[in-house]
Amino acid sequence: MQEVVNSLNEAIDDLAEGIMVKNPMSIYKPDKRGEGRMKIKPEYVDGLMDEFDLLIVGGYWGKGRRSRMLSHFLCPGEKPTVFQTLCRIGSGYTLKELYDLGLKLDKHWKVCKKNNPSAAILCGTEKPEVYIEPCNSVIIQAKAAEIVSSEMYKTNCTLRFPRIERIREDKEWYQCMTLAELNQLRFRASGKLASRHLHIQEDQPEKKKHKFVAKPKETIGVIDHFKSQNLSAVTKEMDRSYTAYFDRCADLGDPESIIQGTSLDTRALEFRFHGGRVVEELKEGISHVIVESERRTLDLKMLRRLYTKKFKIV
Asked: What whole-number distance in Å separates Cα of residue 182 and Cα of residue 314?
């Protein structure tokens, strides 16, 4: 474990993205995760990354489960009297957190025009669909992999893989990160935001792992009326042989109306192979009636009442 920690700390010092831990006996498979290989990045570990306190100044309407809600937010880096856009964030929150945030800001959103949405908000080429005056907004704590150059935002840079950590209820709207603080992070380590080493204490209790219940896989199968008959109820026993009637007649019980070439012909052969006896006439003494469609079930149940020995319908 300590060897992994040391390697990750070396990667942080070298401004690398992270490390790859793998089983030397594993085989690489394209487009496959796991398989004896695991990627470890500083942003996967709490406390190793610098964080951003950003003010929400714009929004974008969501799609799918997030439709009718603002799901992406435009966040700025601060300048003395105005706010410059920095990034667009649309992950890191739950649907409930997004819903609660929407209720809090709902009445303050305004439709954005082609120009800068407000005198206090300066945008690059990326314009929001709606905007909010800074004094009516909230500060979010965000985390990202690194700061990269971008002409889409007014700060001429943006965050790579940004995500919302939490809403800063303890801060006022004007207490967000300043442009000077942003530039300090940007130029300190070529935009890399991993600034601390990982230290593990041997007596440190492990965090309780969440147990994830795997969702049942959705299987693709054959439509019911194309499936072969389930003959599991017709089994061969040592002390008893079964006699079955296969309902291949257009008219129930009429041998002259037999339909040739149905799937029941094959089932009858299988039944004989396993030791069963097939009869061509529906009569007293049979143990099973095999049908191709459930449409005959009601008629057979009515007929079964007339028999002393009741047959099973399969």
From this structure: 73
* Residue carrying the six token digits 């990982």: 198
Tokens 């529906």, residue located? 282
Q: Do β-strands 52-55 and 70-78 pair in parallel, antiparallel, or remain unpaired?
A: unpaired
Residues in the chain: 314
Domain spans, the chain? 2-40, 52-188, 225-313
Cβ pair 20, 41 in contact under 8 A: no
Strands (E), 16-162: 19-22, 37-40, 52-55, 58-61, 70-78, 83-89, 110-111, 121-122, 130-131, 139-143, 146-149, 157-160
What is the H or E stretch that residue 244 is in?
Answer: strand 243-246
Nearest to 163 by CA among 72, 86, 92: 92
What CATH number was assigned to the domain covering residues 52-188? 2.40.50.140
> What is the mean predicted confidence (pLDDT) over 260-270?
77
Report how far residue 218's alpha carbon sits from residue 202's, in angstroms, rounded to the nearest whole number. Answer: 43
Structure tokens at 78: 């601060």
Per-residue tokens: 53: 């306190």
CATH number for the domain running over 225-313 = 3.40.50.10190
Do residues 172 and 80 touch, judged by C-beta distance below 8 A?
Answer: no
More reliable by pLDDT, 97 or 211: 97
Strand order in the sheet with 277-279: 277-279, 243-246, 288-290, 312-313
Regarding pTM above 0.70, the answer is no
User: Each residue of 19-46: pLDDT tens digit?
Assistant: 888 887 877 777 776 677 787 777 667 6
Question: How would you class 76 by CB atoms within 10 Å of its CB: exposed for 0-12, middle for 13-18, buried for 19 or more?
Answer: buried
pLDDT for 236 equals 43
Q: What are 214-226's pLDDT values in tens digits?
A: 555 555 555 554 5
Separation of alpha carbons 55 and 77, rounded Å: 8
Nearest residue to 297 (alpha-carbon basis) of 203, 232, 238, 229: 229
